[in-house]
Amino acid sequence: MNILVTGGAGFIGSHTCVELLQNGYEVIILDNYYNSSPDAVKAIEKITGKSVKTYETDMLDKDGVEQVFAENNIDAVIHFAGLKAVGESVQKPMFYYHTNLEGTINIIEAMERHQVKKFVFSSSATVYGMNNPSPYVEGMPLSATNPYGWTKLMIEQMLCDACVAHPDWHVALLRYFNPIGAHASGLIGEKPNGIPNNLMPYITMVAAGKLDHLNIFGGDYDTPDGTGVRDYIHVCDLAVGHIKALDKLDQIQGARAFNLGTGVGYSVLDIVHAFEKANNLKIPYEITDRRPGDLPSYFADTTRAYQELGFKTQHSLEDMCRSSWNFVKHLYQQ
Ligand code: NAD
Ligand code: UDP
Fold first, then answer.
1. 216 Cα: distance to centroid of ligand 2 (angstroms)
2. 199-229+264-301+318-333: what fold?
3. Cys-Cys crosslink for 266: which of 36, 249, 270, 279, Cβ 3.0 to 4.6 Å?
4. Coil, strand or helix: which one is 28?
5. Class of 2-181+231-262 per CATH?
6. pTM higher than 0.85
7. Residue 216: CB within 6 Å of ligand 2?
8. Which atom of ligand 2 is nearest to the CA of 228?
9. What is the pLDDT of residues 90-149, one digit of tens each?
10. How far apart are the CA of 225 and the centre of ligand 1, in A?
11. Whose CA is nearest to atom 8 of ligand 2?
12. Where do the domains of the chain lie?
């Protein structure tokens, strides 16, 4: 089976490509390397011992997208490509709407032209908005609080509409919780870029001595230790979730949403302490003001992904912390 992986050189895409190749799928990557590099493709090839056909193509380039579909007999698309920084999306909303929506439309239209009927989409827990209680269940009302979140919600809607127009399409909307960790080889992972917004890339930069301490955004939430709680999932488990979804796509009629999380919430302090213990390091921190827009706590209900996809996470928090640092440590040793 030939799988087109858009954004396949990125953090989650690269881990998913490894998993696909190790499960006998052929992989074609479309990526413009806006937030990644060809090194990730080399690393995927090194880990798997298999070669990957790669197109350096912007998904906004209609002709380029058409060429990828015309040159390959694509059976399914896994669509990771897109912009993902919440704060930046507030500053540059049109950049986000233009890239994420138009890029996805180009991919969907190419699927229509080439009769590709299977699609797996990288959605996010952000579509549950601010008002749902945890655990989040797929049928809850959806909303968004920033342009990035709106693009995820709008793409989910676009895909539901595409499935009404094409009753023989099979679409999985995978709502990721908080992916962290890295491949055990240390060859692929999440590269901290500038000053990171997300917790784990920030912690690894503190561990590397590039930043002197972690600011913990809020110590007075109504949570067990006062700091924010999230559902962190190992990126290798997340990658497996894509294979499980692909394997079951035939049985999915239309578009169906699945939470991909562990179902367990950890606080910021839990993560700091787990990271310190797993790597025998100290992470200096200060508790500062809450970050505007942050929710106190959320985590997934994982029942549907388990019952319908057979998806269950395998990696512990310790694995997540150890592998995150193993990857970043390698970066600074090069
Ligand atoms: P990433 O930035 O590492 O990967 C995205 C990839 O898409 C990159 O390789 C980038 O170069 C590529 N890309 C960006 N714009 C492109 C364009 N116009 N044309 C072609 N390629 C383009 O991000 P990630 O963390 O791997 O996330 C993958 C997907 O999962 C994204 O859609 C993101 O919104 C979604 N997601 C991520 C998280 C998270 O916390 N990482 C959580 C929920 C959902
Ligand atoms: N967080 C923090 N300091 C940071 C980055 C994040 O305290 O430098 C907290 C944040 O307030 C939230 C948790 O860590 O409670 C996860 O934040 P992240 O940005 O990684 O994910 P998201 O907020 O999108 O769930």
1. 8
2. UDP-galactose 4-epimerase; domain 1 (3.90.25)
3. 270
4. strand
5. alpha beta
6. yes
7. yes
8. 15
9. 999 999 999 999 999 999 999 999 999 999 999 999 999 999 999 999 999 999 999 999
10. 32
11. 199
12. 2-181+231-262, 199-229+264-301+318-333
